[in-house]
Amino acid sequence: MLEAQKEIVKSTLPALRQHGETITTVFYQRMLEAHPELRAMFNAADQESGIQAKRLAGAILAYAGNIDRLDLLGPAVTNICQRHVNVNVQPEQYPIVGKHLLEAIQIVLEDAATPEVIDAWAAAYGDLAEIMIAREKTMYEEKEEGNLATASA
Questions:
Q1: 1, 18, 32, 85: which has the fewest Cβ within 10 Å?
Q2: CA nearest 67: which of 135, 133, 109, 16?
Q3: Cα–Cα distance, 49 to 57 (Å, whole number)
Q4: 3-state secondary structure of 92
């Protein structure tokens, strides 16, 4: 990710504070409508109450605010990855999420979501997806090793 893209992502912090939950609500609505098979990965009560959208909005805001200090997000990323492993998120699902997240940003922010903003967020999402996929791969391997150890005991 280019430094200029990091600056663009950081420049969206005020919009994220103001519209973050709307963005994530639109995101979930559109993604789950287009991919109903993913619905089972989410807690229905959290979806219905809006807690899921609020939680994701907070995570996006934290990511944008710490884009050049990602080490500060380590525990949060590990927690999210553990949830992903618990529901069996796979690497091929990340592009689906990215597509719908970028679309939601564009829908909600309208003209403020310039091509440069969308490109910067695409790069930011891509970097975060790589981090999470790698962490989840390790977690899946550890889980499998634990299962094999338990099975052989």
A1: 18
A2: 16
A3: 14
A4: helix
Residues 117, 68: Cα–Cα separation, whole Å: 17
Say how many residues make up the chain. Answer: 153
**pTM of the full predicted structure?**
0.88
Residue 102 sits at the vertex; the CA angle it makes with 18 and 26, to the nearest 5 degrees, is 60
b (16+ CB within 10 A) / e for 13-35: eebbeebbbebbbbbbebbbeee
What does the radius of gyration of the chain's CA atoms come to, in whole angstroms?
16
Looking at this protein, which amino acid is placed at residue 16? L
DSSP SS3 for 96: helix
Query: H helices within the chain, ranges in order?
Result: 3-11, 13-34, 44-49, 51-65, 74-86, 94-109, 115-152
Q: Which fold has domain 3-152?
A: Globin-like (1.10.490)
pLDDT digits (tens, 9 = 90+) for 118-140: 999 999 999 999 999 999 999 99
Per-residue pLDDT of 17-59, as tens digits, reads 999 999 999 999 999 999 999 998 988 898 889 999 999 999 9
